[in-house]
Amino acid sequence: MEHTRLSLLYSIAVLWISGLLLLVKPSLVFSFLNSSTTYPLELANLLGVLFLIIGSFITLIFKYKVEKIYKWTILIRIFFSLCSLGLYFVYHNSFFVTLLFMILIGVLITVLGLVKDQEIKK
Questions:
Q1: What are the angstrom distances between the C-alpha of 47 and each of 16, 17, 38, 43, 54?
Q2: b/e string for 76-114 if b means 16 or more Cβ within 10 A?
Q3: Which residue spans traverse the membrane (predicted)?
């Protein structure tokens, strides 16, 4: 499951970088993600903390090679994708579409890693 494990590096990088930037320079993150809304600094900082916490868990999954959780990371990100899509339809903010694509890139990388690992097993 080495390819699947390595695919988690994308999520780790995105979560850590986004989390740190949301703490230090949240306006940069929201402009990069095409947000049409201004968010309170406190909310952006809290989101940064949550990203860092989730990033820490994914880092631990990567470090300790918790293979039983690899497939769950796909399901969790699909849930986040559906939530992002729903929020876009409610608020019509392109931020959620950009976020959706960032999440789906990670899902695609992990699925490709799983496929590659399954081919190697055979």
A1: 12, 12, 14, 6, 11
A2: ebeebbeebeebbeeeebebbbbbbebbeebbebbeebb
A3: 7-24, 44-62, 74-91, 97-115
Q: How does DSSP classify residue 24?
A: H
For 22, counting Cβ atoms within 10 Å of its Cβ (0-12 exposed, 13-18 middle, 19+ buried), the class is buried
Structure tokens belonging to residue 83: 């939530």
- pLDDT tens sequence across 61-91: 999 999 999 999 999 999 999 999 999 999 9
What is the tens place of the pLDDT at every residue in 14-52?
Answer: 999 999 999 999 999 999 999 999 899 999 999 999 999
The pTM score is: 0.91
